[in-house]
Design a protein that fits this description.
By secondary structure, the protein is of the alpha/beta class. It has three domains: 172 residues, NAD(P)-binding Rossmann-like Domain (Rossmann fold, 3-Layer(aba) Sandwich), CATH 3.40.50; 251 residues, N-(1-d-carboxylethyl)-l-norvaline Dehydrogenase, domain 2 (Orthogonal Bundle), CATH 1.10.1040; 35 residues, Single alpha-helices involved in coiled-coils or other helix-helix interfaces (Up-down Bundle), CATH 1.20.5. Helices cover 55% and strands 9% of the residues. The strands form two sheets. An eight-stranded mixed β-sheet has the order 3-2-1-4-5-6-7-10, with helices on both faces. A two-stranded antiparallel ribbon has the order 8-9. Helix 5 links the parallel strand 5 and strand 6. It is globular and about 85 Å long. Bound molecules: NADPH dihydro-nicotinamide-adenine-dinucleotide phosphate. NADPH dihydro-nicotinamide-adenine-dinucleotide phosphate binds next to helix 1, helix 4 and strand 6. The site of NADPH dihydro-nicotinamide-adenine-dinucleotide phosphate has 22 residues, from helix 1, helix 4 and strand 6.
Length: 476
């Protein structure tokens, strides 16, 4: 019996994905460059072995799969993907589908898709979110490629994806790089979400002087209400954990220097490329970079000292903590609104027709940003699919009006205390700018016209596009 699908690359992600595929009753052929890893994988597969066809050469691998052959590649991102595609071209036949499930930059995916166009082979760029656990038990799957090639793999992919209230967290999102692009924006939003949670934690720890355990209790409580999400849940869990050696809270012993692999940065870069503000995401990427300047920060604290009043002494602590919860919700709305606005613009620019309600839908489970909140986004976009921005949909405009007062009070308190809240403040600045019909760019236009004769539009429609600026500084 031929395998329904093949997979190359049996490291952490590939082997977990292969086990997930086998567990759902799909016959799968596997191959790994280093053959010993295939042997180990088969032993570890246990009872799932009956659905797995281990192979030791690409000839054997290809022959084991039912044509047209879908081949998932889950190897090291970058050059190895191009090398493997070049090799596979010589082994596969017309109609076969190469599926890159690694963390590729969507621009590489577009290039690879185009590169295979005349070969008879097709290419799918597949964003897989949820880490190792997700790959094994149900990831969120974002597919980009031709719709016909998706049809060939739809059954296998929906069988392994996460489910939210019975609905599959897997969808075809558009041609070529659409899937990897959406995965990139997912990660950008993830950065913003995590940063905002960390900023709120900073206010609790440094502003109110709470212990890690007290912070854990607060996040635990929030996880039972509107902020219910995987990231809040794990924040509560990590804040509760103690170091087995010292007995101290584990978080208190962790160096405040965050790593990053680049996908958050890509989302900020693409937002900038398209001229779409994604300030909360940019602030979160920058905050991670700044966190890595540990030595400089320690030196600067000695020179400059800590700013502001330090402690926050609210009239009512309970009311302030309730404000923090609503501020986090408001900040989150800002970050997601920005992420979706970037996708809307990319959809036009790259000709994808990205389905916004479906994107929110497939993020509701399986991925790192999974939450109840995404179900609200799904409903909002279903009700208003062409909304120019999430925050003008009826449901979310009501939420912004309900929560932005709390965000304003929290940002003001943090700023006065000297506690950094770059992502939350960015979200607030975004709301305040986006909702203001008359901004201040009239002055910028005048400045531009002064030094560069760029011209401007008049509010009264009068057809006069320059000056009069006199002779400038000479007049003073
Ligand atoms: P690695 O990124 O560590 O890659 C190792 C695998 O790549 C091995 O199977 C290795 O084979 C193979 N490989 C490397 N170079 C080549 C080559 N030139 N030709 C053929 N095979 C090659 O594995 P991971 O499982 O950690 O990650 C796989 C992909 O998934 C990456 O793109 C990564 O970014 C992404 N990823 C996604 C996550 C998510 O949450 N979605 C989380 C972690 C990773 P060999 O055994 O012979 O060395």
């Amino acid at each position: 019996e031929k395998a329904e699908i093949g997979l190359i690359g049996l490291a952490v992600m590939g082997s977990n994905l292969a086990l997930n595929i086998a567990e759902k009753g799909n016959r799968i052929a596997v191959f790994n460059r280093t053959p010993e890893k295939t042997d180990t994988f088969v032993v570890e597969a246990g009872a799932l072995r009956e659905h797995i066809v281990p192979t030791k050469s690409l000839e054997e691998f290809v022959a084991a799969i039912r044509p047209p052959r879908p081949v998932i590649i889950m190897v090291k991102a970058g050059e190895p993907v191009d090398e493997l595609i070049a090799t596979l071209r010589n082994h596969l036949s017309a109609g076969d589908i190469i599926i890159d499930a690694g963390n590729a930059n969507f621009r590489d995916t577009i290039r690879r898709f185009e590169g295979l166009k005349d070969s008879g082979l097709t290419f799918i760029g597949m964003g897989v979110s949820g880490g190792e656990e997700g790959a094994r038990h149900g990831p969120s799957i974002m597919v980009g490629g031709t719709e016909a090639s998706y049809k060939r793999v739809e059954k296998v992919l929906t069988s392994i994806s996460a489910k939210f209230k019975g609905e599959d967290c897997c969808a075809w999102l558009g041609e070529n790089g659409a899937g990897h692009f959406v995965k990139t924006i997912h990660n950008g939003i993830e950065y913003a979400d995590m940063q905002m949670i960390a900023e709120i934690y900073g206010i609790l720890r440094d502003g109110l002087g709470l212990s890690a355990k007290e912070c854990s209790d607060i996040f635990g409580k929030w996880n039972k209400s509107r902020l219910e999400s995987y990231l809040i849940e794990i924040s509560a869990a990590v804040l509760k954990a103690s170091d087995p050696i010292t007995g101290k809270p584990m978080v208190d012993l962790i160096v405040d220097r965050a790593g990053q692999k680049g996908t958050g940065k890509w989302s900020a870069i693409e937002a900038q490329n398209m001229g779409v503000p994604a300030t909360a995401i940019e602030a979160a990427v920058a905050a991670r970079s700044l966190s890595s300047f540990k030595i400089q920060r320690e030196a600067a604290e000695k020179i400059l000292g800590l700013p502001g009043e330090g402690a926050i002494k609210p009239a009512s602590r309970d009311a302030f903590i309730a404000d923090l919860e609503m501020a986090l919700l408001a900040g989150k709305i800002g970050a997601y609104a920005q992420g979706f606005a970037v996708m809307a613009e990319a959809s036009k620019e790259f000709g994808w027709s990205l389905p916004m309600p479906d994107i929110a839908k497939i993020w509701r489970a399986g991925c790192i940003i999974r939450s109840q909140f995404l179900d609200d986004i799904t409903s909002a976009f279903r009700a208003m699919p062409d909304a120019s921005n999430l925050i003008i949909t009826p449901a979310f405009s009501a939420m912004v009006k309900e929560t932005d007062g709390a965000l304003r009070r929290v940002v003001a308190a943090a700023v006065t205390a000297g506690l950094p809240v770059p992502a939350l403040a960015s979200a607030l600045g975004y709301f305040d700018s986006y909702r203001r019909g008359r901004g201040t760019a009239n002055l910028i236009q005048a400045q531009r016209d002064f030094f560069g004769a760029h011209g401007f539009d008049r509010i009264d429609g009068v057809d006069k596009h320059h000056g009069p600026w006199g002779s400038g500084l000479a007049d003073f």
